[in-house]
Design goal:
8% of the residues lie in helices and 38% in strands. It is mainly beta and 488 residues long. The longest helix has 12 residues. The N and C termini lie far apart (57 Å). The protein binds CU-O-CU linkage and copper (II) ion. The site of CU-O-CU linkage has 10 residues, from strand 5 and strand 30.
Amino acid sequence: MPVLTRRRFLSGAVATAVSAGALPRLARAAAPAELAIGTRSLDVAGRAATVFSITRPDGGHGLRATAGDPFRVRLTNALPEPSLVHWHGLTPPWRQDGVPGVTQDPLPPGAAFDYDFPLDRPGTHWMHSHVGLQEQRLLAAPLIVADPAEAGLDEQEVVLMLHDFTFRDPAEILAALRGGQGHGMAAMGMAGMGHGGHDMGAMPGMSHGMSGSMDGMAMDLNDVEYDAYLANDRTLADPEVVRVERGGRVRLRIINGAAATNFHIDLGAAEATLVAVDGRPVAPVTGRRFPIAIAQRLDLRLTVPAGKALPVLALREGERQRTGLVLAAPGASVGRIAGQGKAKAPALDLALEAKLAAAQPLAARPADRTIPVKLGGDMARYVWTLNGKVHGQDAPLMVRQGERVAIAMTNPSMMAHPMHLHGHHFQVVAIDGKPLSGALRDTVLVPPGKAVTIAFDADNPGRWAFHCHHLYHMEGGMMTTVEYEGLA
Ligand code: C2O
Ligand code: CU
């Protein structure tokens, strides 16, 4: 099996395991790094698929840069349709943030744009299209900003990027959701039912749709049924097997690049230490399971025992489906892993969030301004709102440079919303009214019935997207902007 030879080295002991190749360090040279939006071919459970990609000239997917270096990138749109890339987790000047309608127009076919801004801190980030539903077609890639201070660590770097994958046209999925086929039925779709030949198990769409409507539950977990869940573009039928070095010390950089799926990372009996969320360090938390909402990242440190293979699984919230990769020590044999677990994974909650503490919290300071934001939705019409408004009818959330701004979110809707603010890292400062000095991050999950308050320093003037990162909620209107007063 070719996967067994997928062993790559960057320099010294640091290796990465993104399926499409190692991520070379961004050159210090004056010439920008080149990234092109194009397509790549996948094999999903025996069936060919063409999806979008963000590739380097060497054919690799994604980018690895180093904190302290400038982010100097020439992005070319090699697609026959307009496109653009947002650097999720970076804090660029707002005109380089890659959000159509807010910061920049999409690039027409063949056009290029030069990005150039300082990368002042390390972190596990990602990049993706913010244009229409392109993200669902996997127009997303890892964006790792390495810490030069960690270059000498005896630690192997493994990047794990998660996706939810469908053979259907995402526009059809959205239309079906809008047509009132929500609650799992929408997405069951004809593709999922019509291609019984591929090895996807027994029509998960069907069983989900049925049980979803019969349970009559108060909470709605998954609106969209997928054909597969991918870890570095592969399913558990043929997972990536990363050979770890002697000593077995691994830093896992996990990115939830799914459009509409929350996961739990499951290490079985093994333990890992969570050291960063969304690229920002937290006081270490040890555990075996870690929730990762849409768009979030987890940095886990763990040691693979000598002679052992350690599956790193991602369990789909509320369901039995899962994906993942395998970390294998020298000489370990790797067994087959079923694509479905025995029991349904629970819904994500805020138990871990409430325990997290930023390693570099915001300076203690009261908020100068608190903005209430109610997360709402009309499930039947599949309209999703912030403070009752869909994007386009919304008023921007106004802030003034230099302020400490708090956003107090409440969620009376039936679904969880992974809320993302561009251009800043915020701190989670209260959950259900209980104050905490929580994680500094860029995306936080607000489950149904919950209240989460975030705070940030208004130190990056511009007009910034603030939205639910569930792609169909965002397309359904769940987006607004945070805008600085006096912006030219
Ligand atoms: Cu990951 Cu508005 O973006
Ligand atoms: Cu949402």
